[in-house]
């Protein structure tokens, strides 16, 4: 019998959350991960890279030989720790703060990446936000626009800007969510935006197939990141991940290998797909 193993009750008032205030702190890479130079010579832009899934992906990519443009909103301390971890694992990194909901920021990121390394091979659209509300009538127009601006509009802006610089063989990886498939009664706008990401991923994969660019997504289940204690109540955090078959949340380190797979040649015949890393929850699609 699988025993429930959820985090202790906790909450952070500040959004986005801060990793250093989490108990326990997330796990970003494990000692048994064996890199194999799968991304040697590649340049990756990773959004939401200051902590959580983004940091884990960045560290794994660094171990696989990629150079990283790490994009984040304003969590400077966490972003600094991400850069230290990337360098500790042998990677080269540039960190850039900014709101991806502004197209000019996306243009700056692409320009700085090209100025530094002259190429873009991998684009990981991972940044996002959520604001739980008990009823749809509680979702303000401002919140609705902000959620979609961060979670889906930003993907359009960054891809539109980067695409002309991405050669055949490049890859785009988007972060969707289990909520796009099974729903969530208190994350209505977030779930809707993640559903949009899934549909966008499938459509863009078809659109870019002739250019030789693959587009896929990862749909995480409950994962222990700073987003969780900063958006949920103590009671909700205390049971976070407990409703999965594995009865626990995932760690960012358990997500990152899926992003490595989709970025490298191991997945050369995979496009328009979603990998579900969710603790065993069956979903359709």
UniProtKB/TrEMBL annotation:
It holds the Pfam family adh_short_C2. It comes from Aliidiomarina minuta. The keyword Methyltransferase does not apply. CDD domains: SDR_c1. GO terms for molecular function: oxidoreductase activity, acting on CH-OH group of donors. This is NAD(P)-dependent oxidoreductase. Keywords: Oxidoreductase. Transmembrane segments: none annotated. Residues 12-24 have a biased composition (Basic and acidic residues). The keyword Oxidoreductase applies. Belongs to the short-chain dehydrogenases/reductases (SDR) family. Residues 1-26 are annotated as: Disordered.
């Amino acid at each position: 019998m699988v025993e429930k193993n959820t985090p202790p009750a906790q909450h952070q008032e500040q959004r986005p959350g801060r990793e250093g205030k989490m108990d326990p702190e997330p796990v970003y890479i494990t000692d048994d991960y064996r890199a194999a130079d799968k991304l040697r010579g590649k340049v990756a832009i990773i959004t939401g890279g200051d902590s959580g899934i983004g940091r884990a992906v960045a560290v794994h990519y660094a171990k696989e030989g990629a150079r990283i443009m790490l994009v984040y909103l304003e969590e400077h301390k966490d972003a600094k720790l991400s850069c230290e971890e990337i360098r500790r694992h042998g990677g080269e990194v540039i960190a850039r703060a900014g709101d991806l909901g502004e197209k000019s920021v996306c243009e700056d990121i692409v320009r700085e990446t090209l100025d530094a390394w002259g190429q873009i091979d991998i684009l990981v659209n991972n940044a996002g936000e959520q604001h739980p509300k008990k009823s749809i009538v509680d979702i303000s127009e401002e919140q609705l626009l902000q959620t979609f601006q961060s979670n889906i509009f930003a993907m359009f802006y960054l891809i539109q800007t980067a695409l002309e610089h991405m050669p055949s063989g490049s890859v785009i990886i988007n972060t969707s969510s289990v909520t796009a498939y099974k729903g969530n009664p208190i994350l209505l706008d977030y779930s809707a935006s993640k559903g949009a990401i899934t549909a966008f991923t499938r459509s863009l994969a078809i659109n870019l197939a002739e250019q030789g660019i693959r587009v896929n997504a990862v749909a995480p289940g409950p994962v222990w990141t700073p987003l969780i204690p900063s958006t949920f109540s103590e009671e909700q955090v205390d049971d976070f991940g407990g409703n999965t078959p594995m009865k626990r949340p995932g760690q960012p380190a358990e997500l990152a290998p899926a992003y490595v797979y989709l970025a490298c040649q191991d997945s050369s015949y995979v496009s328009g797909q979603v990998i579900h890393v969710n603790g065993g929850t069956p979903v359709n699609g």
